[in-house]
Amino acid sequence: MDQIEFFARVGLAIAIGAAVGVERHWRERDEPPGARAAGIRTFTMIGMLGGVAGLIERSLAPASAYPGIVTVGFLIAVTVVLTLFELHQAIAEESFSATSVITALLTFGLGVLAVTHDMVLASAAGATLVSILAGREFLHGAIRRMQWVELRSAVILLAMTFVLLPIIPADPLGPFGGISPRSLVLLVITLASISFAGYIAVRLLGTSRGDVVAGGIGGLVSSTGTTITFARRSREGANETSLAAGAIGAGAVSLLRVAFLIGMLAASLLPTLLLPLCVGALVMLGYAAFLAFGKQAGVGESFPGNPFELPAIAKMAVLLAAVAFFARAATLYFGDRGLLAASALSALADVDAATVTVAGMLPGLDANLAVRAIGIGVLVNMVVKAVYSVIFGTRSFAIHLWSATLLSVGAGLAADWLQG
Q1: Residue 220 belongs to domain spanning
Q2: 281 and 409 share a domain?
Q3: What string of DSSP letters covers 263-285?
């Protein structure tokens, strides 16, 4: 370790301790001197102590028969001292909490980590620790407001993501490329996550704003899935106008996402497609804002009773997977001009598939054909989402989605005509 790295690593250990100490000291800033067990100075020194322990470990590492013994010794000393002080304070105030002791141990450990291993990891963990400490009121308030159905849904979602998904086979099954069981489960998780994000957004922000925020988040993942999810909710008695605003917002985000993908994967096509995509997205965003913040959006406020219904989510996932499967099968029967048909058919489930496929064929593909293929994929996806709104949603929901789609398509085509 050279001298510059030496100062950088120890400095990071001290900075982590100081950041934690500021939060701890600020929370008890009104206490008289001697009334708090640990403040900014104490936690800064704990971080520095961890850095020193890490330095000693590194210097002894080549010849030490017991690696880690110095760190363990310092850790035991910090734990004993902080525990005694916290116990004395807790008995005096009749208020018991292990937060300060655990925080001190983490601060010491991150100081050691900053010196002995990855500085980026130590820095990120330190920022996370301070965020958790500073968010005490928010976290406690959220727990008090949480209902059993929300906790159950969160547990199910976590179990599907971290327990079920890793053990599901990833290899496709069936002809025409088949269907991957893991992809199907991942689609279920994606749709359930969209529903859960929408539920939380509505609980925190109210119906009109919450649905728009949830729609924007869903549009980053799957605007098609978001549209179907919101359409289904509209038939369950939720606010049709705000749900339509959220679905339209998801469509706008989807157009911007396509523009971003083109810029990253096929920059040569961006001058032709950027203006139509952005104009179409702006029209949809304007329509969504009109619905969300207009006078009619405040009528009939209602909150969903369940973050997501897993059987309904699974049915939607199977439907989208089946559409994608039949799209791949159908493309095998088209000739040399099958790219346009493939883009249109794949867009029945997801617009990103057409964009990524066409981008991967450049520069060997004619630029005009590539632009037409992506454009057809975008148009088909926009129209099919409007069709899904009729199938799964209420009449009012479908009317708003069709109106926004037609206005957006018209504006995009007009922008394309004007520029070329």
Answers
A1: 147-419
A2: yes
A3: HHH-GGGHHHHHHHHHHHHHHHH
